[in-house]
Every structure is written in structure tokens, then in C-alpha cells.
Amino acid sequence: MQRFFLTAAAVVMLASPLRAQDPAAVIDRAVVAYKSIRTMRGTFEQTLRNQLTGSMMTARGDFEQQLPDRIAVLFTEPKGDRIIVNGATAWLYLPSTNPGQAYKVPAAAGGGSLNLTEQFLTAPAARFRMTSAGTARIGDRPTHAVTLIPRTPIGEFSQAIVWIDDETGLIRQFEITEPSGLIRRIRLIDARVNASIDPRSFSFTPPKGVQVIDQTGGRGGKD
To answer: Which domains does the chain possess?
Structure first.
């Protein structure tokens, strides 16, 4: 089952550039900024690299997020795929890999993993060993990168690298190595914080004729 964790890999824009390049200071600044986010919307590019087979896949699309628990990911490539999280419920409609089916699952099982930004920035000093991963330009933005290694194993990733905008504090890109060895990189081509978002973005109605596989057991928020 395809997963996406974009959510919002982002932090709110700040006026002053980074004063310290220590990796902990870079992350701390991102943590402070993240607390100011209410909404996020933009476009993304995702690449998946399988280290065993050497294969690579690319996906692109648009995303919208309303913190703390609403996410809409609309893929333009592969066209028609989407992931909608509304509170406790997640819809996974991925006709590129599961034609004719839509999965309705608890957000913690299917959609909770989308918000990796929260994973990166929740008590990072206690949860991760941090080292500098150098500097890079992501698009036209200068960034500092930080490698995060979990101090104790977690399910989502064994290692993460985040690239944080020197001027704004925005996470411009992040890469995770999943326990399976799959490497997933998300680049934010465009991201706008605290923009207006239509609440209907977080609703999903399965297309006519699509089989709904409901794994919520009757639980979850409204669609």
C-alpha cells in the first residue's frame, strides 16, 4: 500500500536567518517555528529508491494540511491517487496500485504516518542523535541539513535527514530511510503557511463503483 507523509513537512516562516549552525540549534529553531503553524498548502515531489533493486519511482502532487489532524494529498503523478485524513479516519484511494478499491482506515494506521514533521520536531533532543549533514541549495533556497538517528527504534524510519531553510526556517526537503531499506525523499517545491483552506478539502466520497474496504470497525470521524 502506497504511503505518503508529506504532511506538511513544514515550519512557519521567520524573518531572521540562522545565527548558529550547530545541528541542535538548527532543529530547535524549526521546533519553535512549527508551533506557529495553523495550515500549510503547496506542491511536492516524492522519490522512492529501493536499495535492493536499484529502482526509483517519482510522484508529484499538491497537499493541504490543517493542524493537528487534517491532511489532503492529491497526486498529479500518478494522476488520481489521493490520501485524505480527517481527524481519526484516513481514506487511501490509490487507483494506480489498487484499482477499483478505496481503503478507509484509522488515521494511526494509514494516515498518522503522513505527519512526519511532527515526528522530527517532537522532543528531538531526547529522541534523536543529531549531526550536521552540511549545506545545500534546495531549489533556489540555501539550507542546512541535519541527520536524525533515533535513540530507540521507531516504526517510521531508522534515519532521517531534514533540510531547513536558512532564512525562513521552513523544512524544504526531508529524506527518511524506512526499516525495509526503502529511501523516501520529499521536496517541497512550493509551500505556503497559514493560508486559507477550504474545509471540504478534507472530505472524500468514493467514486461510483469503487469497493470500500472499511478497516475502522465502525470507529473514526466523519468523512
So the answer is: 23-191 (2.50.20.10)
